[in-house]
Design goal:
Helices cover 33% and strands 27% of the residues. It is of the alpha/beta class. It has a 6-stranded mixed beta sheet, sandwiched between helices. It has a 4-stranded antiparallel beta sheet with strand order 2-1-4-5, with helices on one face. Strands 12-13-11-14 form a 4-stranded antiparallel beta sheet, with no helix packed on it. Strand 12 and strand 13 form a beta hairpin. The protein binds adenosine-5'-triphosphate (ATP) and magnesium ion. The site of adenosine-5'-triphosphate has 13 residues, from strand 2 and helix 1.
Length: 305
């Protein structure tokens, strides 16, 4: 559906994207996850034609697109990171304005507006001005606006920022339902747990580059360890730490120690050591491998400082 090859974009000295290549297949729920300034929005904007790349190739539905090709991009819908709505107009009028820019005939547009407002649980509020809407309601209305022209691919740029938990779940359920009905979704966020829940394939992006890509399981398999065990160094004496070395390596970071067991490690053997020394289990936190852990491993920094 989407194929990007070696895409780069600079803003003055800032390299917003450097040599990004990826493909998204029809029906995928594709995640783009990375910290602030990673280049997620730049990529979304290039896909949707709001920005032109300095170099690189973009194919949509098997067709190579020129930067200015609007018609070729009609199969895309974009839910932008910053909400794009007219505050002084009602929800209904907003959708009429967006719909008319796509040249949807009035009768058809009316039906579509009813359909999407219903879906977004905003039909009862259709006559209210957008300025009276909560962050979550605005986001849902923006989502409706991006779907009026029946796109095959939906680009969602951080659609849960500034949204209450209830709207957030409504957005997740809605996107999952649309994806099951065949909509291809590209979803950007800086929350690992969101891509873990929603996406079948994930690209981790940092400082304009894709640093890892694959299913969640493929990605965590890139970690050189599986389970890890954390503890406060002050509560685990030297002799015990030395005993742990039979299981793997210990990394010490300030007050915290982390045991990275070698392959074949059995938790039962670890617990046996604790039992024989009468050490309480609750001094240890067992961590499963995670995307956060992979990000830390690849970049040396936390996703969110
Ligand atoms: N119009 C612009 N002019 C100058 N620099 C820009 C512009 N747009 C983006 N940048 C810079 O390009 C880099 C990538 O920005 P981008 O908005 O794509 O990141 P992002 O991953 O969407 O971040 P966030 O999670 O904060 O939305 C950043 O360093 C940003 O400051
Ligand atoms: Mg952004």
């Amino acid at each position: 559906m989407i194929s990007i090859e070696n895409l780069s974009k600079r803003f003055g000295q800032i390299r917003a994207l450097s040599g990004v290549s990826l493909t998204v297949e029809k029906g995928e729920f594709f995640g783009l996850v990375g910290p602030n300034g990673a280049g997620k929005s730049t990529l979304m904007h290039i896909l949707s034609g709001y920005l032109f790349p300095d170099q690189g190739k973009l194919e949509l539905a098997g067709k190579t697109l020129k930067d200015t090709d609007k018609e070729g991009r009609r199969i895309l819908g974009l839910v932008p990171q910053s909400i794009a709505l007219y505050d002084k107009f009602s929800a209904m009028v907003n959708l009429e304005v967006f719909g008319s820019t796509y040249g949807i005939p009035p009768k058809e547009l009316k039906e579509k507006i009813k359909f999407w407002l219903d879906k977004m649980q905003l039909w009862d509020r259709r006559k209210d001005k957008v300025k009276a809407f909560s962050g979550g309601m605005k986001r849902r209305l923006n989502l409706a606006a991006s779907l009026l022209h029946d796109p095959e691919i939906l680009l969602c740029d951080e659609p849960t920022v500034g949204v209450d938990p209830q709207s957030r779940n409504a957005i997740f359920d809605f996107l999952e339902e649309q994806n099951e009905n065949g909509l291809t979704v590209v979803y950007s966020t800086h929350y690992m747990e969101e891509v873990e829940r929603l996406c079948n394939r994930i690209a981790i992006i940092d400082a304009g580059k894709i640093i890892a890509m694959g299913s969640r399981n493929d990605l965590v398999a890139q970690l050189p360890y599986n389970t890890s065990i954390q503890f406060d160094i002050a509560k685990v004496d030297q002799a015990l730490r030395e005993q742990f070395l039979q299981f793997g390596t210990i990394e010490e970071d300030g007050k915290q120690g982390t045991l990275h067991p070698e392959k074949g490690f059995k938790l039962s053997e670890f617990f046996a050591v604790l039992e024989s020394g009468n050490i309480p289990y609750n001094r240890f936190r067992i961590k499963q491998p995670s995307l956060e852990g992979l990000f830390l491993h690849l970049t040396g920094k936390q996703m969110r400082e």
